[in-house]
Amino acid sequence: MSESLLTPQWPAPVSVRACQTTRLGGLSLPPYESLNLGEHVGDAPEAVAQNRARLRQLAGLPSEPLWLQQVHGCEVVDGASAQRCADASFATRPGQVCAVLTADCLPLLLCRVDGTAVAAVHAGWRGLLAGVIEQAVKRAGGGEWMAWLGPAIGPQAFEVGREVYDAFVAEDDGAASAFVPQHADRYLADIYALARRRLARVGVEQVYGGQHCSYNEPQRFYSYRRDGTTGRMASLIWLV
């Protein structure tokens, strides 16, 4: 893989392909430098188009990814449909590329262990709370699943207010373990730990990744909270 792509380290079936982009190796100018894949962030459209073409070539994608219009909700769409307003998609047929864009929110890739289905999930804290992970597993069908957690804002950088803590704990007492109290009703939240709790709810016990922090690795990853105006990375998964 090039500097532009990371390969998830997980024991996915041979029928599953997945990759994660970095911010490196593209054509976008500051403040989007350089492999920005988001059309909605103010970058030059021609740069985004060229970056997406470069991604297709580098990753050997079988088709154009299903680029979603993400809204921090829990809508999940079939990759074969024309619907785009959602925060997760799934595929059960080869050649359909599921993708999510992030710059601090958690990108989460799922595959059925028998290699017959995959899903990509955009899981910011609002989506997690709304149940986007549970909905993705439900919509994609039964069976045994594994998950890979891509680069998101880490537990040392993700500061949230008391209302976020209260919302999670009201639904799950054990979620309190994912928050570290700070000053004036502020908390540091571990979005990876929160996601693992949600995955456990739907029986996903094989969970990999979760070692990166988008906020604290500025040379490698975009971070909206760190930079404000910035690009977006893609997490992609498909069947062959």
Number of strands: 13
In helices, the fraction of residues equals 10-25%
From the 3D coordinates, which CATH architecture would you assign?
4-Layer Sandwich
Number of helices: 6
CATH class: Alpha Beta
Main sheet makeup: 6 strands, mixed
Mean pLDDT: 96
Helix and strand pattern:
EEHEEEEEHHEEHEEHEHE
The largest beta-sheet arranges its strands as: 3-4-7-6-8-12
Q: How many structural domains in the coordinates?
A: 1
- The radius of gyration computed from the alpha-carbon positions, rounded to a whole number of angstroms, is 17 Å
By CATH, the superfamily comes out as CNF1/YfiH-like putative cysteine hydrolases
Structural class: alpha+beta
Residue fraction in strands: 15-25%
Poorly predicted tracts of residues: none
Q: End-to-end distance, in Å?
A: 18 Å
Characterization of the model:
The chain has 240 residues and is of the alpha+beta class. It has a single domain (5-153, 207-239), classed as CNF1/YfiH-like putative cysteine hydrolases (4-Layer Sandwich), CATH 3.60.140. β6 and β7 form a beta hairpin. The model has no long low-confidence stretch (mean pLDDT 96). The longest helix is centred in the N-terminal third of the chain and has 15 residues, at 45-59. Helix content is 23%, strand content 25%. The chain has helices at 45-59, 125-130, 132-140, 162-171, 191-201, 224-227, and strands spanning 5-6, 16-21, 76-78, 88-91, 98-102, 106-112, 118-123, 145-149, 159-161, 179-181, 186-189, 206-209, 233-239. It has a 6-stranded mixed sheet with strand order 3-4-7-6-8-12. The protein has a 4-stranded antiparallel sheet with strand order 1-2-13-5. The protein is globular and about 45 Å long.
